[in-house]
Amino acid sequence: MHVWSKMQRGLPLVVVQGEIDHGNSSDLQTEIDKYLQQGETKLLLDLTDVTYIDSGGVSVLLSTVRKVRERGWLGAIRPNADVRRLIEIVGLKADNGFRIFDDVNSVEAPTASAASTQPLAHEDAETTAP
Amino acid sequence: MNLDGQSQCRRLTVSPDPARLTEIRRFVEDVGQEFGLDGERVFDLKVAVSEACANAVEHSGGQHHPLEVCARFYDDRLVFEISDGGDFRLPGARRNARRDDRGLGLPLMVALMDEVRIAKMRGGGTTVHLSLYL
Predict the structure, then answer these.
(1) Residue B31 contacts residue B61 (beta carbons within 8 Å)
(2) How many other CB atoms sit within 10 Å of the CB of residue B61?
(3) Which of A89, A99, A120, B109 has the fewest CB atoms in 10 Å of its CB?
(4) How far apart are CA A6 and CA A81, in angstroms?
(5) Could you please report the per-residue DSSP string of A20-62?
(6) A41-88: pLDDT as tens digits
(7) Which domain CATH number covers B79?
(8) How many structural domains are present in chain B?
(9) Fold of A2-104
(10) Which tens digits make up the pLDDT trace of A108-127?
(11) Alpha carbon of residue B39 to chain centroid
């Protein structure tokens, strides 16, 4: 697995290539956590060149969605059919906290009010399905 | 298992180390393609076998029992047997479980395979049987 990241149009974009498994998923978690610790709540994960993912990788997605969902979302870009099937099997569906994009260009740019300096959200964000 | 079954076993023995999962997946790929499975089924098998192996690595408790993966071909199914020297435990039940969501392995195996059987071996050890029917 190869992981790298950059800011793209105001959003962190984490690009993963290769196979995400139990042996290397902590590297992906570390890369994502870097942005979460900076206060980012909307994050893009480019899965275009991911050929394999197991519960090691899926658990990183699940925990990231849990961390951001009150104030933002995790956006997966172009997961292949196999990866997408696995994501769906574990119950990760497109909703407020998780999005799937066909193209990085279809992601809307963050508005000025969505800057990461906004105050902490409180208990008014429980709007997602049970 | 009868002798005929034994003779058709394709075997890979590795140390219980997450770094060996890549090698295990290549083995599963080779077997799956040899058996004529399509890409989707090969992917499912890779995930299920990886999950069984990752479980085994977790509950090996650092004792370094070798992890054995055995593929058996039958007329109507392909069976992977993953054996190790440890006792089966639910991921996350260990004190030092590193993360949440570690309990996904077994549900994934069940979701992706046609049959999952977990056998505690006499004298210690666990064998997970993963079957795909044709």
Answers:
(1) no
(2) 13
(3) A120
(4) 25
(5) E-TTTHHHHHHHHHHHHHTT--EEEEEEEEEEEE-HHHHHHHH
(6) 999 999 999 999 999 999 999 999 999 999 999 999 999 999 999 999
(7) 3.30.565.10
(8) 1
(9) Transcription Regulator spoIIAA (3.30.750)
(10) 765 544 444 444 444 344 44
(11) 19
Mutate to test the interface with A, among B26, B47, B57 (most CBs of A within 10 A): B47
Q: What is the mean pLDDT of each run of 10 residues along chain B (134 residues)?
A: 59 90 96 93 97 84 80 94 78 48 86 95 88 93
Range of the domain at B54: 3-133
| Contact predicate B25/A19, CB 8 Å | yes
Do the chains contact at B43 and A58, CB–CB below 8 Å? no
* Window A:3-62, CB contacts with B under 8 Å: 19, 21-23, 26, 29, 52-56, 58-59, 62
| Tokens describing residue B13 | 């023995």
Q: Could you tell me the residue ranges of all domains in chain A? A: 2-104
Q: What is the 3-state secondary structure (H, E, C) of B20-76?
A: HHHHHHHHHHHHHHHCCCCHHHHHHHHHHHHHHHHHHHHHCCCCCCCEEEEEEECCC
ipTM: 0.83
Tell me if B99 and A54 make a contact (CB, 8 A cut-off): no
What is the identity of the amino acid at B95?
Answer: R
DSSP A90: T
Number of H helices, E strands in chain A: 3, 5
